[in-house]
Amino acid sequence: MTDILTLVFRTLSSQTGQNKDPSAGPPSPAPRSSTLLVGEHRLSRSVLLLAAVTAASELGVRVAFFAQTQIQSLPECLQRCSRITFSYPRTLEELLQQVAGLHESPCPPSLIIIDRLDGFLRGAVAGSHVGFHSGDESRAAHLAALLCDTAAFLTEVLEKRGSSSAPCRAIASFLSDADSGQESRDASATDPVLAVLDRYFQARCTLDQDRSYEAAAAAAQEAWHVYLSGTKIPDDCEDGPALAQEWKLFIFPEGLMEFKLV
Amino acid sequence: MKSGSARSKKLCGKMRTFLPAVAEQLFGDIQKNYEETTQIPDDLLIALKFVFGTCALQALDLVDQRSVTCLSSPSGRKAFQVTGGSGRLYTCFLSCHYCPCPAFTYTVLRRNQGLLCKHILAVYLCQAMAVTQQESVSDQQMSAVLSGTEGP
């Protein structure tokens, strides 16, 4: 999945900079099959949608997009894109059933996206709507493990078909309780659910708002740090470093997004 | 110890990438010895107890009772089901460590004090000893098992 996110960042990278060619820049990381996107919902949903569009248009692969609430401002072209299937499970149980049922599909997706894991996990305990509760770790682990196992199985299916759409990747967004406040901290140290999710996702993409003067200096409305990090995986070269990339995202008043490699 | 021989890689597929080299080597040795002698020698049993603690004996009990079943559906999807001491079924995945039992939640996920629970260890041992039961289910049943909404 990290390869698709890197492609998104490169495609939308600064045209005035050196990286005019999306294939330029740092070497593409070995594709990790699963990435957890950690950060504010508004922005993480935009990145998820960009990943879906990039996978469907640039790579020509099928995408299964799961969200708890209907996306209001979905462009019509996206709604009509036959390669992206939007599903809106209301509860964690419905989400588990739909992800678990992907192996039955005659045309399996190459990218599974889940918007707002925290929304599904928080609402899972009947009668409580705020925060996480005991048993949350197990529910989070079940969902993450099912997602990773499904991606691993669909990768085998796609490879057996000799399809160029292998491997199947997964990306999910999550906003930790600790991050819900204004100040962003290293949430995995305090959020047991995020610590559990980190066990299963091979890479993490962290969105962290830059509140310094840099956004104003770039005439942008907002500036964000985008950290792409991952542990070593067997496919990486033996002595190579673990994945670590940093991008900067500028959001301009008219909604234009621009990424810049740091 | 060197990890990752072709033989041992086959054993539990991608799930093995979650294991430290010492555990992977141990399962490989158990598999080799069991293939040749249909026994696990004492030194490997001691090593198993050393690496996995008390859940090693409980897992061996589950192996003795042939408690591990590999479910397969027509789509090719597989999952392990382990029958616990109380008769409850625990579904474990092929490619990563997860078990719905309380010990996995508390010892592995919450306190980070163990690698796995007795059910997942039993899966590894049954695979090494080739004593996993096989069962076919429909694709719909497989989906229900994976999502934890019903048994087969």
Describe this structure in words.
The complex is a heterodimer of chains A (262) and B (152). Chain A is globular. Chain A has a domain at 4-11 and 30-123 and 131-207: 3-Layer(aba) Sandwich (Rossmann fold). A 9-stranded mixed β-sheet of chain A has the order 3-2-4-5-1-6-7-8-9, with helices on both faces. Chain A has 8 helices and 9 strands. Chain A has helices spanning 2-11, 41-57, 76-80, 92-100, 117-122, 136-160, 192-200, 214-217, and strands spanning 34-38, 63-66, 84-87, 111-114, 169-174, 203-210, 222-230, 244-251, 257-261. The model of chain A is unreliable at 15-27 (pLDDT under 50). By secondary structure, chain A is α/β, with parallel strands linked by helices. Chain B is of the alpha+beta class and 152 residues long. Chain B has one domain (4-146). In chain B, 49% of the residues lie in helices and 12% in strands. Chain B has 7 helices and 4 strands; from the N terminus they run H-H-H-H-E-E-E-H-H-E-H. In chain B, strands 3-2-1-4 form a 4-stranded mixed β-sheet. In chain B, helix 4 (55-64) crosses helix 6 (118-129). The longest helix of chain B has 17 residues, at 21-37. Chain B starts with 5 loop residues before the first helix and ends in a 5-residue tail after the last helix.
